[in-house]
Amino acid sequence: MFSSLSGRFLMLTIIFVMIAEVLIFVPSVARFRQDYLLARLEKSQIASLSVLASQNQSISATLAQELLDNAGVYNVVLRRDASSQLVLSSPVPGPVTTMVDLRDPSPWYLIAGAMMQLFDPPDGVIRVLGSPTQAAGTLIDVTMPQAPLRAAMIDYGLRVLALSAVISIISAALLFLAVRRFMVKPIKRVVGSMQAYAEAPEDARRVITPDSSIKELRAAEDTLAELQTRLTGSLKQKERLAQLGGAVAKISHDLRNILTTATLLADRMERSEDPAVKRSAPKLVNSLSRAVNLCEGTLAFGRVDEAPPKLVMSPIQGIVDDVLQSEQLAASAEIEFGCDVPPHLMVRCDPEQIYRILGNLVRNARQALEAAGKPGRIQIAAAETADGWTLTVEDDGPGLPPKARENLFTAFEGGVRKGGTGLGLAIAAELARGHGGALSLLRSDNDGTAFQLHLPKEAELFDQAAQ
């Protein structure tokens, strides 16, 4: 029970009410003690005035004792006209243990006296000084037993505590019911809705309907409903994309087989003696090659089981040389390749995946220069910084068109050449993120294009990437 929200509110309410009652209890007991003593002074004054009004100011011992018993004191001293007179007296059982001056007491004086009174021995004697009422004198001084006062204070305190307990229980019960009605039940409804939604998040009927009258809770329900609506839509979209991706993969696989057969037939056409066929065959072969590359790229991008990078310290110059030599075989003689990599530079990476990243970048640069139909240069540079390593691939080609820059690393949208799919850069960027790094476009203008791959040194990023 006490682990629930309403149970904790119940306990806190009882505790706080009891603390408030304790703060009220102390001054209440002090006030009770003051009233008790003032009542004894008032009765003592009446008794003393009765004696002074009698003939010869003399009464019988029996009557005197009756007046003292009625006032609850041992003796009464009344000061009038600058002289003090012992008006009533009886034997005092012991010495005075406590003295209280009620002529002009401060609240702190009364509170401290009351607390001390509770812990004083019950058989003591109290001396009380006060001012007579109705200007009947300048001072009234009485002695009285402490036991009746202490017993009355304890009885009064117990009644106050009992009343406080009743008030605490009633207040706590009301707050408990109010919290359950206005907070716990609405929260349970939200939690129940979340649990029901979690069982079938694709079911739009399980999205919560905000209806709370509590402003803060209504805001939470509105936010939750919006979140669930977006998540449901996203799940449906992902499901459709997954189905579409599966269909595209199957189509691409079958289409690649068909295009491979067509490519073989086109190769035979190149050996034809017909001049028209000779002129058309290379174009046909190029078109078929682009179609095959599109199918292979689509299949590669559709694989979600891309192996995580196996990070090791590798000499980066060897990887760069392999990339450049591979592209030189396919490049025209007018394109130059350069390498600005320190011979002994070691980079923590997956060599195979870095080869794929650099290969995509260099291939795009080569194709851009060939499409421009002019000589050019492609260069790869590497350097080590305080926080990682940077690899830069730049060329002096015509630069990227504005449309390609907008969605450069988005699959099927960031193609940099006519007929391209943009899968190469999308895959390269994904491989870079797998290393904990980033692939970015440094510049692209009439003077050429430069991409930069940053690989961080932080161990935690490598650990995350390897998981």
Give the domain tally: 3
Helix content: 55-70%
Spans with pLDDT under 50 lasting ≥5 residues?
459-467
**What's the end-to-end separation, in Å?**
43 Å
- Shape label: rod-shaped
Number of helical runs? 11
Helix/strand-derived class?
alpha+beta
Oligomer: single chain
Q: What is the strand content?
A: 15-25%
Q: Describe the biggest sheet?
A: 5 strands, mixed
Mean pLDDT: 81
Order of helices and strands: HHEEEHEEHHHEHEEHEEHHEEH
Strand order of the largest sheet: 2-1-5-4-3
How big is the Rg?
50 Å
Task: Please tell me about this protein's structure.
It contains eleven helices and twelve strands. The strands form three sheets. The chain has a five-stranded mixed sheet. A five-stranded mixed sheet has the order 7-9-10-12-11. Strands 6-8 form a two-stranded antiparallel sheet. A hairpin with a 3-residue loop joins strand 9 and strand 10. It has 467 residues and is α+β, with helices and mostly antiparallel strands. The longest helix is centred in the middle third of the chain and has 55 residues, at 215-269. It starts with a helix and ends with a helix. The protein has helices spanning 5-53, 61-71, 107-119, 146-199, 215-269, 275-302, 316-330, 351-372, 402-406, 423-434, 459-466, and strands at residues 75-80, 83-88, 96-101, 125-130, 139-145, 312-315, 335-340, 346-349, 376-384, 388-395, 438-445, 448-456. It has three domains: 5-171, no CATH class; 215-302; 312-466, Histidine kinase-like ATPase, C-terminal domain (Heat Shock Protein 90, 2-Layer Sandwich), CATH 3.30.565.
